[in-house]
Amino acid sequence: MTSQKEYLDKMAEMVVEMEDEEIGDLCREYLKEGYDPEEAIFNGLIKGMNEVGRLFEEEEYFISDLLICSDAMYNGIDVLKEKIESYGENNLATAVIGVVEGDTHDIGKNLVKLMLEVNGFKMIDLGKDVPCEKFVDEAIKNDAQFIMMSTLMTTTMANMKKVIDILNERNIRDQFIVMVGGGPVSESFAKDIGADAYSENANEAVKVAKSLIKNHEN
């Protein structure tokens, strides 16, 4: 019998090695052994994707490689999420999430979206290169509690502040919890632009969002 750790390591390896067609079968085998599907997402697939991100940053992988690795991760998730009871319940809160206008790097955003979905959030994905007004309009339209923005470019960070400025101009700033993240973003930047919170990675985003819900309710 293959151990859980062996399965998790193999999932991570298959993401890195771009084995997007075979990974589904491995995930099905994993589930048949009775192992935890949530553990597979966090400590298998996402672990592999984090390594892919490192390889990309070091210019060992290119955009085309990144896309195939991402396909592998999502193919595995499609198998595993069917066995996660909380997946799709979406009962904690609703969030609109997107990459700010001018930026098309969305892997980090996709990971945050995934992690929050698994943890019971309803995620409205606006995609990448999202106009500032759209964040606000979609948050209102979907009766969202959160507006979540990301960017990997210093040149587009100012658009995060523009979204908050729009909220203030419409006198609805206090209706939404604003979270920001991404490579060049920092906690001090988040504070300077008037955001409610900053998260360094997808795991932290879940913890921060859950704590903000509790504070918001109180």
Automatic annotation (TrEMBL):
**Top-level enzyme category:** transferase
Which GO BP terms, alphabetically? homocysteine metabolic process; methylation; tetrahydrofolate metabolic process
Q: Which PANTHER family does this UniProt record tie to the protein?
A: METHIONINE SYNTHASE
SUPFAM superfamilies membership: Cobalamin (vitamin B12)-binding domain (SSF52242), Methionine synthase domain (SSF47644)
Which segments constitute the B12-binding N-terminal domain? 1-92
Signal sequence extent: none
* Family under the similarity heading: Belongs to the methylamine corrinoid protein family.
Q: Keywords of this protein's UniProt record, alphabetized? A: Cobalt, Metal-binding, Methyltransferase, Transferase
- InterPro entries from the xrefs? Cbl-bd_cap (IPR003759), Cobalamin-bd (IPR006158), Cobalamin-bd_sf (IPR036724), Met_Synthase/Corrinoid (IPR050554), Meth_synthase_dom (IPR036594)
Q: What is the source species? A: Anaerococcus vaginalis ATCC 51170
What's the superkingdom here? Answer: Bacteria
The enzyme's E.C. designation: 2.1.1.13
Q: Which residues form the B12-binding domain?
A: 92-218
What are the GO MF terms of this UniProt record? cobalamin binding; metal ion binding; methionine synthase activity
Q: What is this protein called?
A: B12 binding domain protein
GO CC terms in record: cytosol
